[in-house]
């Protein structure tokens, strides 16, 4: 079974006003694969019980001017991919969230991943959570207590300000 989402190609084209609603058997709405940068500007996603963006490749994912409602995480660096490593970077700018049930962003600090978060608002749990990523088959990815790779004016906040 492929883990690719029907929304994969939408991110590559950076939708202007797309609204992604989770109606798929894959756990992620969007998977960023390969090397390079991805820009998601505008639109939004709702009802994704796990994460919206899964970043398996290398490079920077920028998510800006976007709304997320009723999602698990907005972004997660792959925790246990085959050939896992980094760095992977995410830039979150001017997003609005409501009902994020987990950390807004999850990154693997041991692989040099960074998250830069600014100008965002809404109802979320922890804004940026660092993890120890692993190569598939070498254990489980787990949360760590460091925060050095959580950056930007909001990267170290325990929650976002309300909109």
Estimate the helix proportion, in percent: under 10%
Mind telling me the CATH class? Mainly Beta
Identify the CATH architecture: 3 Solenoid
Number of helices: 1
Average pLDDT figure: 85
**Count of extended strands:** 16
In spatial order, strands of the major sheet run 2-5-8-11-14-15
Instruction: Give unreliable regions as ranges.
Output: 1-26
Domain count: the total is 1
Strand content: 35-45%
Major β-sheet, in short? Answer: 6 strands, mixed
CATH topology: Pectate Lyase C-like
Kindly name the structural category. Answer: mainly beta
- H/E element sequence: HEEEEEEEEEEEEEEEE
Shape: globular
Q: By CATH's scheme, which homologous superfamily applies?
A: Single-stranded right-handed beta-helix, Pectin lyase-like
- Round the Cα radius of gyration to an integer and report it: 14 Å
Give the distance, in angstroms, between the N- and C-terminal Cα atoms.
Answer: 40 Å
Description:
- This protein has a single domain, classed as 3 Solenoid (Pectate Lyase C-like), CATH 2.160.20.10.
- Helix content is 3%, strand content 37%.
- The chain contains 1 helix and 16 strands.
- The longest helix is centred in the N-terminal third of the chain and has 5 residues, at 8-12.
């Amino acid at each position: 079974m492929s883990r690719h989402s029907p929304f994969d190609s939408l991110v590559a084209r950076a939708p202007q006003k797309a609204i992604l609603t989770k109606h798929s058997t894959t756990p992620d709405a969007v998977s960023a694969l390969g090397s390079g940068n991805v820009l998601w500007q505008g639109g939004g996603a709702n009802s994704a019980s796990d994460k919206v963006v899964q970043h398996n490749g290398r490079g920077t994912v920028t998510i800006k001017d976007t709304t997320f409602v009723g999602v698990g995480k907005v972004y997660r660096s792959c925790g246990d991919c085959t050939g896992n490593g980094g760095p992977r970077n995410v830039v979150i700018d001017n997003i609005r969230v409501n009902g994020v049930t987990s950390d807004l962003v999850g990154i693997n600090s041991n692989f040099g991943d960074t998250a830069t978060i600014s100008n965002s608002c809404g109802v979320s749990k922890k804004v940026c959570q660092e993890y120890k990523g692993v190569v598939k088959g070498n254990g489980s990815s787990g949360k760590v207590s460091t925060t050095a790779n959580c950056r930007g004016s909001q990267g170290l906040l325990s929650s976002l300000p309300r909109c």
